[in-house]
C-alpha cells in the first residue's frame, strides 16, 4: 500500500470515529419517559398528561419525550414505584399516601380534611416542610417529585345506601388504596377499609366483596360504577392531591433545561387540568343523577371532620399536619 493510500485510510478512520462519537453525544441528548397511571383513557387526568407530554416535546424540540400509558398498562402502582427507585425511565401518577411509605410525614396531604380548595393545595409547593420531605424522597429513596399540582377533586363515599354520619358507615367494607393513611382515614371515619386496586373495584362491588368505595365523581362515570352502587354521599373527606414522580437518578441525568421544562410544564398542565376537573365533577354529578344515582348532600360535615382527626392521632401525624397547615395559612380547626 502506498504512503498516500495509508494516509487516506487513516484519515477516513479518524473521521469515522469522530462522526461515531458525535452521534453518541447526540444520542445522549435524546431522552424518553414512560409515564404510567391507573386511570382510564376518558379521565381528565389522561388528557392532561398527554398535554404535558406535548408541551415538553415542543419545548425541548423533541429531545425529551413522554409516552403516557393509561389503565396501569405498565403495571401496578406500587411495583412501578419500586422500578422508579431503581433508576428506570418510568414515571408514575401517585399520591402522598403511598409516598408516606418512604417519608411518613408527607402522608398528611392525603389525610381527612387536610386542605379544602385548589388554592390551598397549590400553596403546598411553597411549604418549607413539604420541600424538606421532597428532598428526603429524592436523596434517600430515589424518588423525584416533579410536581404535585394535580388535584383530582373531593373524594366521597359511594355505597348502596345513604351515609350522613360516621355511624352510617359502621360495618361497611369500603375499598381504599393500600397505604396506612388511607386505611386509618377510612377507619376513623367509621368504615372498615379494604385495600384493593382501582381496576378491581367494579367486580369487587358486583360480587359484594366490598360494600362501597371512596372516590371522586369522574371515577364513577368513567368506570360505570353507578351500575353497582346507587348512592353518592358528599362527605368530601379528602381533596385528592396527586404527585408525579420519576427516578432521581434519571432526572439528574437530564440536561438542566430539560429538567426545568419537565417541572414547569408539569405544574402548568396540572393546574389547568385541576381547574377542568372542577367542571368535570359537576358534569359527572349531573350525569349520575340522570342515571338514577341518589346524591346525599345533607351530610353532617362537622361530625366527619371531628372523626377524621383520629387518623392523624393514630399515625402520629398531628404535629406534621399542624405544621404544614400553618405554613400555608390554614388556621387550626378551619
From TrEMBL:
Keyword check for Phosphoprotein: no
Signal peptide stretch: 1-27
Gene Ontology cellular component list: outer membrane-bounded periplasmic space
Pfam families membership: DctP (PF03480)
Domain of life: Bacteria
CDD domains xref list: PBP2_TRAP_TM0322_like
Gene3D superfamilies: Bacterial extracellular solute-binding protein, family 7
InterPro entries the UniProt entry points to: DctP_fam (IPR018389), TRAP_DctP (IPR004682), TRAP_DctP_sf (IPR038404)
Record carries keyword Signal: yes
A GO biological-process term: transmembrane transport
UniProtKB keywords: Signal
Protein name, per record: Putative TRAP dicarboxylate transporter-DctP subunit
Lineage: Bacteria, Pseudomonadati, Pseudomonadota, Alphaproteobacteria, Hyphomicrobiales
Amino acid at each position: 500500500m502506498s504512503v498516500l493510500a495509508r494516509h487516506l485510510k487513516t484519515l477516513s478512520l479518524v473521521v469515522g470515529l469522530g462522526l461515531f462519537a458525535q452521534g453518541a453525544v447526540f444520542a445522549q441528548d435524546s431522552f424518553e419517559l414512560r409515564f404510567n397511571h391507573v386511570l382510564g383513557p376518558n379521565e381528565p387526568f389522561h388528557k392532561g398528561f398527554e398535554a404535558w407530554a406535548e408541551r415538553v416535546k415542543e419545548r425541548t424540540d423533541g429531545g425529551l419525550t413522554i409516552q403516557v400509558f393509561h389503565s396501569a398498562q405498565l403495571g401496578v402502582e406500587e411495583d412501578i414505584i419500586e422500578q422508579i427507585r431503581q433508576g428506570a425511565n418510568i414515571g408514575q401518577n401517585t399520591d402522598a399516601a403511598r409516598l408516606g411509605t418512604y417519608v411518613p410525614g408527607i402522608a398528611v396531604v392525603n389525610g381527612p380534611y387536610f386542605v379544602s380548595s385548589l388554592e390551598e393545595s397549590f400553596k403546598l409547593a411553597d411549604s418549607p416542610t413539604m420541600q424538606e420531605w421532597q428532598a428526603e424522597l429524592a436523596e434517600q429513596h430515589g424518588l423525584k417529585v416533579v410536581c404535585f399540582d394535580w388535584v383530582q377533586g373531593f373524594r366521597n363515599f359511594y355505597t348502596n345506601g345513604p351515609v350522613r354520619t360516621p355511624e352510617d358507615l359502621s360495618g361497611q367494607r369500603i375499598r381504599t388504596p393500600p397505604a396506612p393513611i388511607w386505611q386509618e382515614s377510612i377507619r376513623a371515619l367509621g368504615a372498615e377499609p379494604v385495600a384493593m386496586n382501582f381496576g378491581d373495584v367494579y367486580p369487587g362491588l358486583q360480587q359484594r366483596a366490598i360494600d362501597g368505595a371512596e372516590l371522586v365523581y369522574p371515577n364513577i362515570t368513567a368506570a360505570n360504577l353507578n351500575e353497582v352502587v346507587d348512592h353518592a354521599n358528599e362527605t368530601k373527606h379528602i381533596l385528592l392531591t396527586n404527585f408525579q414522580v420519576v427516578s432521581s437518578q434519571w432526572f439528574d441525568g437530564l440536561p438542566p433545561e430539560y429538567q426545568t421544562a419537565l417541572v414547569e410544564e408539569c405544574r402548568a398542565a396540572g393546574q389547568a387540568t385541576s381547574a377542568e376537573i372542577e367542571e368535570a365533577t359537576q358534569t359527572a354529578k349531573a350525569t349520575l343523577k340522570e342515571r338514577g344515582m341518589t346524591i346525599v348532600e345533607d351530610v353532617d360535615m362537622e361530625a366527619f371532620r371531628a372523626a377524621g382527626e383520629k387518623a392523624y392521632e393514630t399515625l402520629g401525624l398531628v404535629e406534621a399536619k399542624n405544621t404544614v397547615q400553618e405554613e400555608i395559612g390554614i388556621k387550626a380547626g378551619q
